[in-house]
Write a structure and sequence with these properties.
Distance between the termini: 46 Å
Number of strands: 17
Number of domains: 3
Shape: globular
Helix content: 40-55%
Strand content: 15-25%
Number of helices: 17
């Protein structure tokens, strides 16, 4: 019994170590002084004879003395999404997703019966007949459909980011115990809902969000998304993970991240930061999903680097047409067809990121086709300026009559790098069908 309690306390201490920087620094300093490993210090604090010392320390430092599970700090970059995986998400998901009207029948082309969905953007997805019942069970209870569509909206984008957050947290805890990283995520639904931004009060009330979260979780675990590129007719992207759904709602869900995604998540050297604050922000849900897509696009296309012939690291900035940017952030057709509306959405996006993620976006660069440049450092101007004023102040000097034809570049935070290898925007052959 005593051994069981010690092991349980060690697990809790590992969690506190993973989530509380103050406790982590104290443990590291103690380990350094005594020339032992982190695990040995946690073992020391877990012993009954040292419990008073631990309690005194926790009280003094105002740490969770009752060993309640620490919350993930929402304002921090709490996880890392491999850049190539981020690119794939930006390609596959949008503000429209799929609807029941996008159902196109079934196929047995791959040797199993699968249901086909194709939306008006031409995007395709396959849901296996053997798994459709689990999606129906988690589909919104107030809406009766024969074949519920897979979720390819901003909610799915946030779902994958949430799972990466949970995976990194669990692997941090495993590391403190000297255990190897895993591709398995175990969580109670409440833990997942908290990562998605639900408060204790909202969780107590329940509501439609619970159906949406379950539906999105199941969909991500059974859907094969199809993309088309110039070099390939079709690329089938195997479902991102396998999923065990508990029959008892009080039991844990289990997610098993599939290859090749897990290898990239655990070992990739170039990644995009994930902000828990962004996942939890309801302003970026549903019809305003383009704000979330914009934030991720800025992070994806911000400062990049390469190694020149002399072995020196150089930075370069990616620029793209604003019409292309509108496609990437999944702006609606009405936005892309009207210059004033295109500017309104662009200004809204820039203001949102500049106000909420000040270290992400420091300036905006506008260029014409001859690469003449206008740099805007005061991003607050996008809150009040209208399209005609913007043209007069910035576009006319570049001989640009339509905002959609301008090139734009973001001087944002540099991507995190963990090696001196040359960085690439695209690695051929990654995330091809299994």
């Amino acid at each position: 019994m005593v051994k069981t309690k010690i092991n349980s306390l060690k697990r809790v201490l590992g969690l506190v170590y993973a989530l509380d920087d103050k406790f982590k620094n104290i443990v590291k300093e103690k380990a350094k002084r005594e020339k032992v490993g982190i695990a040995e210090i946690l073992d020391y604090y877990a012993k009954p004879e040292n419990f008073k010392e631990l309690t005194k320390f926790l009280k003094k430092e105002k740490l969770p003395g009752k060993f309640e599970k620490s919350k993930i700090p929402s304002g921090k970059r709490v996880a890392k999404n491999p850049k190539e995986f981020s690119r794939l998400m930006l390609e596959l998901f949008n503000n429209i997703g799929f609807s029941p009207k996008d159902y196109k029948g079934q196929t047995d082309e791959r040797g199993i019966i699968e249901h086909i969905f194709i939306n008006k953007k031409g995007q395709s997805a396959l849901v296996p007949q053997s798994k459709i019942s689990s999606l129906i069970n988690k589909w919104k209870a107030w809406e009766e459909v024969i074949f519920p569509p897979p979720d390819a909206t901003v909610s799915q984008f946030k779902n994958l980011h949430s799972l990466i957050v949970l995976l990194e947290k669990q692997n941090d805890e495993r590391a403190t115990r000297g255990e190897a990283k895993t591709n398995v995520i175990e969580f109670y639904l409440k833990e997942y809902e908290e990562v998605r931004g639900k408060t204790e009060e909202e969780l107590a009330r329940g509501g439609k969000f619970r159906y949406l979260f379950k539906y999105t979780l199941v969909s991500g675990g059974i859907t094969t998304f199809i993309s088309e590129e110039e070099r390939y007719y079709k690329i089938r992207h195997h479902h991102f993970y396998d999923i065990d759904i508990p029959k008892n709602p009080k039991e844990k869900w289990c997610i098993y991240i599939n290859d090749p995604y897990i290898d990239s998540i655990l070992n990739d050297k170039q990644y995009i930061p994930i902000f828990l604050k962004a996942i939890q922000d309801p302003r970026t849900d549903h019809n305003k999903g383009y704000l979330y897509f914009f934030l991720m696009t800025v992070l994806h296309y911000s400062n990049n680097s390469y190694i020149d012939s002399k072995g020196q690291r150089k930075t370069f900035r990616v620029q793209m047409k604003i019409s292309t940017l509108l496609d990437k952030i999944k702006a609606g057709d009405r936005t892309k067809e009207r210059p004033k509306e295109a500017f309104r959405v662009l200004a809204e996006c820039i203001s949102y990121v500049a106000d909420n993620y000040k270290d992400v976006l420091s300036e905006v660069r506008l260029l014409n086709s001859e690469y003449n440049l206008k740099v805007i450092k005061d991003l607050s101007i996008f809150k009040n300026i209208d399209y005609e004023q913007f043209k007069a102040n910035y576009l006319n000097d570049l001989n640009i009559k339509d905002i959609r034809k301008a090139l734009i570049s973001f001087n944002a935070i540099a991507l995190k790098e963990e090696s001196d290898q040359e960085l690439k925007d695209y690695q051929e052959g990654l995330f091809l069908p299994i």
